[in-house]
Amino acid sequence: MMKLRPLVLVLLLISSCLLHADDQTVSWPDLIKGVQQFAQDNLDTNVLNALPQVDDAQAQKFLRDIQTQFQGDYVIDLAALRSTAQTVLPLLASQEETQPYAAWLKAQMDYLEVADEIRLTIPPPVTALTNQVVPRPVNPPPQKERELWTKKVSVEPWPDGANQYVPQLKPIFIAQKVPAELVWLAEVESSFDRRAESPAGAAGLFQLMPETAKRFGLSLWPFDQRFQMQPSATASAQYLKKLHDHFGDWRLALAAYNAGEGRVQKLLDRYKTRRYDDIAGHLPAETQMYVPRVEAVIKHREGANLESL
Prior knowledge:
The structure is a single chain. By secondary structure, the protein is an all-alpha fold. The chain folds into 2 domains: 6-121, no CATH class; 155-308, Lysozyme. It contains 15 helices and no strands. The N and C termini lie far apart (49 Å).
C-alpha cells in the first residue's frame, strides 16, 4: 500500500493537484485516519475544529469539489482557499520533510490573494422575488487581470534566490534560443526555490512534471534532475521554445506550459482563433491568472513586454 505522510494529506485538501481518487493502491479509510490522527497529535484546538470530519465517501466528494474549484473556469472560486492555505503553509514549513510542499504552496499564494481581490470587486447578485436563477459572475477580462497583476507584482521585492539564479539561468535560456527574460518563469513557478514540489508531482525551479522532464531528456532516477538548476532550466527552455514554435505567441505558449498544449489547441480550434484573449476565459482558473502573472513579473523585473520578446 502506498504510504502518504499525514501532513501532506492536509495539503492535498487545499491544493490544486489532480489527485486520482479512484487509485486502488490507496485505502481511503487509512488516508482519513491519517489526517485525523495527525490533527489530534499536532494541531491546536482551533485548527482541529476547522478540519472536516468526513468518512470515505465524503472525503472523495470533498476532494472532487476542491479539484473543481482549481480546474474550473471561475477565478473567484480560488478565493475560498486562501484562509485554509494560510493555516497550512506554516505547518508545512515547520517540518523538514514537507518543506518542499511549503515552497510550492508559498509560490501559489499570490493566486489566492488576487482571486480574493477579484471577489471583492464583483458586486453581489441582485436578489429578486422570483425563481429566476441568478447567473454566475463572469471572470474579469484578460486586460483587467493584467492590470490587477501589474499592480500586485509592482510592489513585490525580488524573491530569495533570484540574485543567485537569474545570472546563471539567462545564458542557459539564450543557448536554447529563448528570450532570457523568460527565466522569471521560475519566480511564478517556485519563487526560485528549487526544492519546490507540488502534490501533483511537478518539481524544481520550473515545476516540470515527470512526463515533461523525461520528454526533454531529464533523468528522474537515481537522482531527479528536475531539482538541479542547469538540467531543469535547459528542459524548461526547450519546452517553451517548442510551444512558441507551435503557437507563435508567448501568451499561448505560457498557457500551454501551465494547462497543457492539447488543451490550448482544442480551445483555439473550437473558437476558431489564434489569440490568447479569445480563449482566456475558457482556460482553467489557475491558467487564467498564470499568464498575466508571468507577463507582469517580466515587465516589473526586466521592463520588457511579453508580446515584444
